[in-house]
Amino acid sequence: MGKNEERVYATVAEAVDSMVEHYDKDDEKHKFYFKVQGDPFDVSFDIRVNYEGGYIMVLSRLNFDVPQKAYGKFVSEMTSVNYDELTIGSYDFSAEDGVCMFRYSQFFKEMLISQDAIRIMIRYVYDTVCNFNERLFNATREDDDDENGDAETDDQGVKSEE
Fold first, then answer.
1. How far is it, in rounded angstroms, from Cα 124 to Cα 106?
2. Could you tell me which residues are beta bridge partners of residue 4?
3. DSSP 8-state symbol, 53
4. pLDDT in tens, 35-65
5. What is the model's pLDDT at position 149?
6. Contacts 24+ apart (CB under 8 A), 92-98
7. Residues with Cβ within 8 Å of residue 73, at least 6 apart in sequence
8. Buried b (16+ CB within 10 A) or exposed e, 31-41
9. Which residues pair with 58 in a beta bridge?
10. Distance between CA 76 and CA 34 in Å, rounded?
């Protein structure tokens, strides 16, 4: 680990400490964990400083899982958000366990990162997750379009057109 990596980790620690009263950190893995109240759901943070790759990654796992029958609708909505509305960061979805996370990364190799820059990253992730949480959650709910239950779906939850 070089001096710049140490400085970046210390800067992230100072920024988190200035924003959040209670958090956990793992100095060996260079990670910080905390949760803050959001609207309509709490927002969780997993901040990682990757020395080898030279980047800081802020992950926010959404506080709900996606039921398998809603995968198609959810992925369609998430893709719409990613491509039509986000310019920085993206939502990632794991079909293995129905978990969705928002991811934002910042390269720092051979650069100095300020506490202000870290705080802006954290605020951006918070604002983005709060902005899209309810919309993405609603995409996990059963379709209201099919009142009779007649539409058939494939194993990803996508309705067939008949």
1. 12
2. none
3. T
4. 999 888 899 999 999 999 999 999 999 999 9
5. 44
6. 93/66, 95/71, 95/156, 97/65, 98/65, 98/66, 98/67, 98/68, 98/71
7. 139, 140, 143, 157, 158
8. bbebebebeee
9. 47, 104
10. 29
CA distances from 115 to 41, 67, 146, 152, 162 (A): 26, 38, 50, 52, 55
Confidence band, pLDDT 50/70/90 cuts, at residue 2: confident
- End-to-end distance of the chain based on CA atoms, in angstroms? 59
| pTM for this model (two decimals) | 0.84
pLDDT digits (tens, 9 = 90+) for 90-140: 999 999 999 999 999 999 988 889 999 999 999 999 999 999 999 999 999
Residue 18 to residue 40: CA distance in whole angstroms: 24
Q: Which amino acid is at 142?
A: E
Amino acid at 112: L
